[in-house]
Specification:
The protein is α/β, with parallel strands linked by helices. The protein folds into two domains: 4-233 and 278-326, Alpha-Beta Barrel (TIM Barrel); 238-275. It is 41% helix and 20% strand. The protein contains eleven helices and 13 strands. The protein has helices at residues 19-36, 57-66, 85-98, 115-122, 133-145, 173-181, 196-210, 227-234, 255-265, 284-298, 312-326; strands spanning 4-9, 40-43, 72-75, 78-79, 103-108, 165-170, 185-189, 216-223, 239-244, 250-252, 270-275, 279-282, 302-306. Helix 3 packs parallel to helix 5, helix 6 runs parallel beside helix 7 and helix 10 crosses helix 11. The radius of gyration is 19 Å and the shape is globular. To bacterial alkanal monooxygenase alpha and beta chains. Residues 15-112 form the Luciferase-like domain. Keywords: Monooxygenase, Oxidoreductase. GO terms for molecular function: monooxygenase activity; oxidoreductase activity, acting on paired donors, with incorporation or reduction of molecular oxygen.
């Protein structure tokens, strides 16, 4: 195979278990992923969600780095709109100094939660003075690009010997062009929107704007011994996008969450549209065939895999089945 596989984990908290158990499972999965041969292991950022333990990727990344030795660890992603670009740069420069050559910084534009948590995270900001996402990304890139030296007045110390790898996560032409403008790698979030026509547009936009680079593809995978079992595990895979006039939209996992977003935000002018996420499902051979197809069609060199299975034993088995099929060491 000529492409790499990486994993995205959200530390889901299953019924009748604690957040500690969910996070411990994330650590064990990272360790298994390292042994199997996955290239990266990324953790997400979600707020005010009783079923997800991944509220602070920077903290979890530090813990995972301490419990692994080779695999790259990163964020998929940090929701930059909530934070100071300078502080994000400090956090990841410190992580990269502690674990040289192993730290990835993935940045997302989404809120990672509903308006109540967004207000709690951003309540101290003056909305008029708060920079836009593009300006924040420019500031972050500047701080991460600073080299050691007394001539620089403001540095995000410590400056690592090997800088973090930088990724912008998104699902739009605008995001792809923004990533290319700053020389960042781009990850297309097909696991949120599986429209292959949009994928074509976004890949073309990034390829043209970056001078020939190809995005990474984040995509869902559900693997089982039989295709029928994979379909059962898939359940209801629908996503819903809330679009706001002259505002940022958001994609959530159910119609109920979309309506709750509207309620918390106090919106009167909005549109809710159903989205079908990109999820490959079936036997390991069938899923691998689809990954091969996407690789050959678009030239994708790396897939970031999300396994949206709610049953924890089946979720691990799904990842292990694919690992056994793809990596000789795992098999």
């Amino acid at each position: 195979m000529t492409y790499a596989l990486s994993l995205l984990d959200k530390s889901p908290i299953d019924e009748n278990e604690t957040a500690f158990a969910a996070l411990d499972r994330t650590v064990k999965l990272a360790q298994k992923s390292e042994r199997w041969g996955f290239h990266r292991f990324w953790v997400a950022e979600h707020h005010n969600n009783d079923r997800l333990a991944s509220s602070s990727p920077e903290v979890l990344i530090a813990h995972l780095l301490a419990h692994t030795s080779r695999i790259r660890i990163g964020s998929g992603g940090v929701m930059l709109q909530h934070y100071s670009a300078y502080k994000v740069a400090e956090n990841f420069n410190l992580l990269a100094t502690l674990a040289p050559g192993r730290v990835d910084l993935g940045i997302g534009k989404a809120p990672g939660g509903l308006p109540l948590s967004t207000h709690a995270l951003q309540g101290s900001y003056d909305p008029i003075r708060k920079p836009g996402f593009g300006q924040q990304l420019a500031e972050l890139d500047g701080f991460l690009s600073v080299k050691s030296g007394p001539e620089i007045a403001l540095k995000a110390n410590p400056i690592p010997a090997i800088p973090v790898e930088r990724f912008l996560l998104g699902a739009s032409v605008e995001s792809a062009q923004l990533a290319a403008a700053y020389g960042w790698d781009f990850v297309y979030a097909s696991h949120l929107n599986g429209d292959e026509a949009l994928l074509d547009q976004v890949f073309t936009a990034y390829y043209d704007a970056s001078g020939g680079n190809v995005p990474l593809l984040a995509i869902g995978v559900i693997v089982a011994e039989a295709h029928a079992e994979a379909e059962r595990l898939a359940g209801d895979l629908r996503r819903f996008k809330v679009s706001v006039e002259n505002g940022q939209g958001v994609t959530v996992g159910s119609l109920e969450l979309a309506e709750e977003y509207v309620r918390q935000a106090g919106l009167s002018e909005y549109r809710i549209e159903e989205r079908m996420p990109g999820v490959l499902r079936g036997t390991s051979a069938r899923v691998q065939q689809e990954l091969d197809r996407l690789h050959h069609r678009y030239g994708i060199s790396e897939f970031i895999l999300d396994c949206p299975v709610t049953e924890r034993s089946a979720r691990l088995a799904s990842i292990e089945l694919l690992a056994n099929a793809h990596f000789p060491v795992a098999a």
